[in-house]
Design brief:
Layout (H helix, E strand, L loop, with lengths): L3 H25 L14 H8 L7 E3 L6 H6 L3 H8 L24 E3 L7 H15 L5 E6 L6 H12 L4 E7 L2 E2 L2 E2 H4 L16 E5 L3 H16 L5 E6 L17 H8 L3 H11 L4 H24 L15
Helix pairs in contact: 1-2, 1-10, 1-11, 2-8, 4-11, 5-6
The structure holds thiamine diphosphate (TPP).
Length: about 325
């Protein structure tokens, strides 16, 4: 049976992917500055999760793709502006690429240049929301590598102790640069660590956008009800290198091929086709998204670059 939410989730994943594909073309053309860590393969986590929060909820995204910020609603041309160093970028042309993007109007607080710096910020934003009685929640995305930072211990402990409205969302894609999850974790799952903080730990198939959405809806309800944080571990995989240009000598082709069979966009497309949607309807969604991306890309390319005088702006020491 047709399901509007499922169609919305499909559009969201197609949109995140199409945005990234255009960015990759900009990178190939040598038009960008800064690193990019592609999110291909992980769209279901970003899109499923962000569809469960409100515009005024807070988001701490991480460096893997920008699906989270896109799903939260950040204007797409402004996002290209950050990579193309345009005045219209969210950093007005001064932040190279992915790490400084913020959009406070939608609660997008940015990410930390050092992995794990986002954890205390997430608990702090949640504490502020709790003190204001605003019933906002904070969703904090991070990789399984970042989960090993000590900052997670501090932030997760206090969030659970004070019942702060945080959703800790670990995207376990199996690799931290060239280090496998097995080689870096004492526990078989990141979610196993939740009991140490006295909060629920939930494992979800990160390639299934509907499954991700459902567990995040439950965690958000719990957080808004004042019951505290949840640690969600989405099992997923990155299809591209750690960064664009990564030779990827550390992983086997077979592993990548196995995960590609679980492509979240393809799997969800199949679900839609089996539930009353036609190929033409899905094609129309893809075409509308392609048009939106083309407009955003053109707008960003037409925007001015910042003048040289601004190079020391924000430099304090
Ligand atoms: C404190 C700190 N250490 C190292 C880095 C360099 N670094 C950037 S991304 C990354 C891998 C992170 O792995 P994970 O958290 O699993 O996320 P993924 O890249 O797999 O999405 C590393 C080591 C950093 N930014 N900050």
């Amino acid at each position: 049976m047709k399901n509007d939410l499922w169609a919305t989730l499909y559009r969201g994943m197609v949109r995140a992917n199409a945005w990234e594909q255009q960015l990759l073309r900009f990178i190939e053309q040598g038009l960008t500055s800064g690193f990019y860590h592609a999110g291909r393969g992980q769209e279901a986590v970003a899109v499923g999760a962000c569809a469960a929060v409100r515009d005024d909820d807070y988001l701490l995204y991480d460096h893997r793709g920008l699906g989270q910020a896109i799903a939260k609603g950040i204007p797409l041309d402004r996002l290209y502006g950050d990579f193309l160093t345009r005045e219209t970028g969210t950093t007005r042309g001064l932040g190279a690429g992915i790490v400084h993007i913020a959009w406070p109007e939608l609660g997008i607080l940015g990410q930390s240049g050092t992995l794990g710096g986002a954890f205390p910020i997430a608990s702090g934003a949640a504490l502020a929301a709790q003190m204001r009685g605003s019933d906002q929640v904070v969703i904090c995305f991070f990789g399984e590598g970042a989960a090993n930072r000590g900052t997670f211990l501090e932030a997760a402990n206090v969030a659970s102790l004070w019942k702060l409205p945080v959703i800790w969302l670990c995207e376990n894609n199996g690799w931290s640069v060239s280090v496998s999850f097995e080689a870096s974790s004492a526990t078989a799952n990141i979610a196993d660590r939740a009991s140490a903080y006295n909060m629920p730990g939930v494992i979800v198939d990160g390639m299934d956008v509907v499954a991700v959405h459902e567990v995040v809806v439950a965690a958000v309800a719990r957080a808004r009800a004042g019951e505290g944080p949840t640690l969600i571990e989405a099992k997923t995989y990155r299809f591209r290198g750690h960064y664009e240009g990564d030779p990827q000598t550390y992983r086997e082709d077979e592993e990548l091929e196995m995960w590609k069979k679980k492509d979240p966009i393809v799997l969800h497309e199949k679900r839609l086709l089996e539930n009353g949607y036609s190929e033409a309807e899905l094609g129309a969604i893809r075409n509308e998204v392609a048009e939106e991306i083309a407009v955003a890309a053109d707008r960003a390319l037409a925007a001015p670059k910042p003048p040289m005088e601004r190079v020391f702006e924000g430099v304090l020491a």
